[in-house]
Amino acid sequence: MCGTFKTALLLSCFLYFCQNFNEILALKCKCDICNKTNFTCETDGYCFTSTYVKGGKVKYSYSCLDKVSFFPPEEPRWCHQKATSTEAKICCKESDFCNAEEKFRPLLSSLNIISSVTEKTSTEFTSLEIAAAIVIPTLIICIIIGAAYFFHTSHQRRGMHHHLKHVDDSLEAPDHPILNKGVSLKHMIEMTTSGSGSGLPLLVQRSIARQIQLVEIIGQGRFGEVWKGRWRGENVAVKIFSSREERSWFREAEIYQTVMLRHDNILGFIAADNKDNGTWTQLWLITDYHEHGSLFDFLGRNTLDSSGMIHMALSIATGLAHLHMDIMGTQGKPAIAHRDLKSKNILVKSNGTCAIGDLGLAVRHDVTTDTVDIPLNNRVGTKRYMAPEVLDETMNIDQFDSFKRADVYALGLIFWEIARRCNVGGIYDEYQLPFYDAVPPDPTIDEMRRVVCVDTQRPNIPNRWQSCEALHVMSKLMKECWYHNATARLTALRIKKTLSNFRASEELKM
Prior knowledge:
The protein is of the alpha+beta class. It has helices at residues 2-25, 127-158, 185-193, 202-209, 246-256, 295-301, 306-324, 388-391, 400-420, 445-454, 469-481, 492-509, and strands at residues 27-30, 40-43, 46-54, 57-65, 87-92, 106-109, 112-115, 213-220, 224-231, 234-241, 269-276, 281-288, 336-337, 346-348, 354-356, 363-366, 371-372. The strands form 6 sheets. It has a 5-stranded antiparallel beta sheet. It has a 3-stranded antiparallel beta sheet with strand order 4-3-5, with no helix packed on it.
């Protein structure tokens, strides 16, 4: 009875502490986008000030960084990025509105942004100190009661010590229960994410990454290389970023681990890890491997029948519709726009469907503040696939729908690439990139602007496509994707429904 009473008392103390801890430590921050809450936000993480130089002027942005947004989860890497000549960030949590104080304003000096932080005076009492005054006595009482209970039961635990295994300092976990031999990657992901699609635990990601053997290089891009790798007999794709591309690596890993993102038509994310041997650093992003490679590679080697064309186009539209969709709720998903959709960033699966990859430039929509989190990296999308409003810089970057419409324009060009390879009665076109006959292989922004915006050219649609019902549907869709007026373009969801209805009607005829 005594042991039971002590356990209950200890539990009561612990619950009291848990219930009041967040309330005591709720941090208030200055927030320049929170006009509905008097430009104030509350967080369980950090206040931050972001400073950047635009048009020769220093500009400031203030907000909250909640723990749910941390990557890695234990401490946000975002807060520890070095200041550059054009931007700096400072995170703080020692007092309410600490990000509004002058001492946290980065100063512009000789084109280098530095932070000037003064010492806190002895008369200041922060929320952390107030919390400590309340929490510490409560903890001491709980510890005294808990100590009696601990010594009473410690002899029972001693007999269990021989079952515990040591995990070394490298953070590898070969004996982690979900890494047991015989467990496939697919099963492991389903087992640990419970359908949330938010990614494997970081410890498991690192363990997987450090057990991968690189087999052969299968691609190269602006960021680095793509390798085929093996993990316990399974093929994986390993995207290796150079250390100069850390932002792109971090952003892509962050986007891939967005809750509820996992989908059959989005490239399956497995793990992210940084490998440092003291002289160089490699940043790894590990995803599902698809032997057919990119849609660009596949279309260069293969043709499709009309059914395969619709099947493939529908899968891409379905993936994009899922990306663009916001799912409400505690386990919800923000709407995401890709910003670099092209045939080289789409993978072809063994069943003829596709998965959209390369999310390093993606942006997310925050419904509560109606803002877009544009990534802080220097990359732009692929010029050949840029929508007219992107090329002539008339796009409203503060409105999330603008990014979705630019994705749909690129989708229309991809549909044109696929349709050219549709084999009807032995007739088909050779594979070409959009605007192959209007601009050089590596066009400039000015060259693309002249063709797309000034001359309002679009890829040529052969007359023979009108005699095949599937090609007629595809040509009608692509025209409605690449309207010059962005607001007139179809949504990804509408494209998905049109293709799905057409496929269903064709199956009824069979």
